[in-house]
């Protein structure tokens, strides 16, 4: 499907350009922190979250809030990046490299690693709340800030990280694994799509559907990750496979086996696509994007 | 002035009760992080920031946004507490104790120390943006969220921390010391008073005055801290004096001497009080509160 690939390349480029506009200028006595933030934000990455936000906004025709949406696209990528920076810290996963480059703390020092993560969380809310300036939709923007905060915090991404960290090197029961997947990976994907819908003025029922679609996509995405760690091509992935088994890590695959994992990915995807179609909107690109995210081989 | 002391005790109690209402319930798989957050939020402290916010809101008669203000009182204390948690980390100041209790990372582990600080930053914006729910003043709330983010981030508190961390164990030139004082201490005090004024619907000119008052108070507060480290009574302070000299730390006193420090505190206070009076409002309690903060002996 070469047409989709070209469109995707265009949309990713559009997303990159939007994010870049909201990065801080490296100036002033505190410029080290701006450098550390920009280093991390420009370290590559698939930009899945802002892209899903953009495409969900587009699905609902943007509702006169396209500029506001762009603020939140940058904000959600900042939140995601902050979590990677802190995950890599010596007291967390102790990773010196990420995507082939030194991780933020390894490049700027551990203290700057802590502060750069903090700074990106705050900058996310700064950029998001700047969307109030001149908006005609203050309640939508307010609702979007609430979603961003709720899905990032203890009832979202950070809540999932906490349980994940506490269970390091321990077997994880199925209910807690589901909790981790829903919160650590799922919550920000849900925020991405839901903010896109809310800012565009989508109706409550449609927002509910979008939430369910996003949670399915998040779960399927994570289970596909587990499958790839067993079955993936190390060259395509750019990293060795089998790390979960070596680290005795509990995953959906170790708990339920490969066959059930594949079936679950299929079930979750079909449910997501069927919900998407039920919105009765022009969804060709978003459907293909979701299929690509879930069935990816890298 | 026994009357002020009684009023102050009442207002601090009121502030404590408001903050308590916004703390997370310790429940769910992720309850460890709620425990760590509440441990840090209940570890004592003078509640200066939410108290200044409350009293600035009162100065302008609250403007029909008293409930919204309470959200932000909890939020600003969460931001302040998050900065203490991360400051204490081994890779930052490496403090095992704070106010006679184990610091958060020492009590809950270093990984939970990082995550509890992150969680409190996000929870601050969650609690703040919940003020949108049912408000009649969405633009004021939006403006308050913007101020909170700006004064917390790289152009506020975190910007000051970065420069402070970079200059550890180095002589600090006067312009950078001023920068650190204005941002690390001053910015959150400014946010506290400014948010109080903005939520109450104060006019732009009055908001400008409030900003200048708060910055003066912040600078005077910090310089008084430096004076107390030389001249203070260790029993009243509850900690040894002379630590700045022992650590070869640059302060206003080491740069300019005690006499100039005292004169600067006096000058800043008088300017702050004169600006306060120029607002022509019932400011007796707020004036006394500011005087107490600046001329404190502990």
Automatic annotation (TrEMBL), chains A, B:
<keyword id="KW-0414">Isoprene biosynthesis</keyword>
<dbReference type="Pfam" id="PF00348">
    <property type="entry name" value="polyprenyl_synt"/>
</dbReference>
<protein>
    <recommendedName>
        <fullName>Farnesyl diphosphate synthase</fullName>
        <ecNumber>2.5.1.10</ecNumber>
    </recommendedName>
</protein>
<dbReference type="GO" id="GO:0004337">
    <property type="term" value="F:(2E,6E)-farnesyl diphosphate synthase activity"/>
</dbReference>
<dbReference type="InterPro" id="IPR053378">
    <property type="entry name" value="Prenyl_diphosphate_synthase"/>
</dbReference>
<comment type="similarity">
    <text>Belongs to the FPP/GGPP synthase family.</text>
</comment>
<keyword id="KW-0808">Transferase</keyword>
<dbReference type="InterPro" id="IPR033749">
    <property type="entry name" value="Polyprenyl_synt_CS"/>
</dbReference>
<dbReference type="GO" id="GO:0005737">
    <property type="term" value="C:cytoplasm"/>
</dbReference>
<keyword id="KW-0479">Metal-binding</keyword>
<dbReference type="InterPro" id="IPR008949">
    <property type="entry name" value="Isoprenoid_synthase_dom_sf"/>
</dbReference>
<dbReference type="GO" id="GO:0046872">
    <property type="term" value="F:metal ion binding"/>
</dbReference>
<dbReference type="GO" id="GO:0016114">
    <property type="term" value="P:terpenoid biosynthetic process"/>
</dbReference>
<dbReference type="InterPro" id="IPR000092">
    <property type="entry name" value="Polyprenyl_synt"/>
</dbReference>
<keyword id="KW-0460">Magnesium</keyword>
